[in-house]
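Support reply, case 0932

Customer input (verbatim):
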Amino acid sequence: MSKTRRVLLHCASLVGGVFVLLQFFRPELPHPPVTADLSAPAQVKAILRRACYDCHSNETRLPWFDRIVPAYWLVVRDVTEGRKRLNFSDIGKLPQARQNAALFESVNHVLLGAMPPKPYLAIHPGARISGDDIITIKGYLSTLAVAPKPPAGTSPLPSPPSPPLPAPNGIAFPADYGAWKPISGSERFDNGTVRAILGNAAAIQAIRENEIAPWPDGAGLAKVAWKLVADPDGGAHAGDFWQVELMFKDRERYAGTLGWGFARWRGNELAPYGQDASFAEECVGCHAPLKDSDAVFTRPVRRSAELPEGLDLLTGRVLGLSVNPERTTFSMLLGDHVAANHARTRSNEPYPPGSILVLATWSASDDERWFGARTPGAVASIDVLKRNGESWLHEAYARGPEKLERLPSGDPARTAEISSRTTATLVGAKP
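Our regenerated output:
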């Protein structure tokens, strides 16, 4: 036997010995009892068991090749993290709203290509979720949509603390929040809320210059959410304030969280969300699949050249939000600083002279980045009200065959309806 061959055999024996020895170093993969399994239709459960349960339940089943070290080490790590993130074996312990939120988030991770992970699918093809599977799951989730609440008397909101306490990760509530401008909105039928999406000055400038891929450092985004309240005409409007979520871009400072600092405040008292700084992992887990949009769900509304001269929808303060699923529309009531200051007083008196109100209505479309949401599409109509003494000057625009067209004159009944819309529940939530 040649010397080279002896060396190769010796190396092979050594590698084989190490490989065998490594098989004895096996971290434990516990299988706790199933205490509160997911309750769902049999067809949905069958899909989830096949595609998800091996990593996201206590009923993990390992094929022979996953039992071999070092693959086994990776499996234990992934299953441990998967159960921590979502465990179908005890999901039934959560309040129904949190269960539904977990299911909607899960299907959106599938739609965004983040789950199941591609390397996992390469050696576990049985976990693939087909188009028909998605249709089945979406059909089930649609039955979990939260209907707007019945109308109720509106009570004034207490003044939030000034300033609110910082988030557990140290992010402070922005002092200039009251000056942030609207960039879009959304209706979330998965949890029965409607949202105004705002941007700080840096974000607004980035949108105007079309420099949002990626967003620049210093940009701040806010999602301000209210519970939906049903209207008699089949639509719904913003009711009780729920929460405000903030994102601040700083590639260096927040390198560990996708380049964004995340924070959230809930309730009229704007209480910081989360027990400690680890709460941001929830935000990262949700935003991580959106690499192509710098981890941002929001698409700013288009600044169309067809808008009336001098009218820019990236101005004003948000005074009201409403949706109409039957007409598939999303509306935002905006006010200038005079109208906004008046609305903050919660006065029943008419708007003072100089007030400007803009009611922008878009056709609503399903959000391509989140199943469970609808977002503004093309502008359908715009109403501009300018307070002149004791009366309003009303300019109305509606979608024509090719563009927005000016209507001959404002409708007095519509003028009265727009100018009397309730705003206290929205403005009162802002510090």
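We compared this against your earlier run and they match. Two observations from our side: Residues 40 and 46 are 10 Å apart (CA to CA). Residues 149-431 form one domain. Please reopen the case if you see a mismatch on your end.
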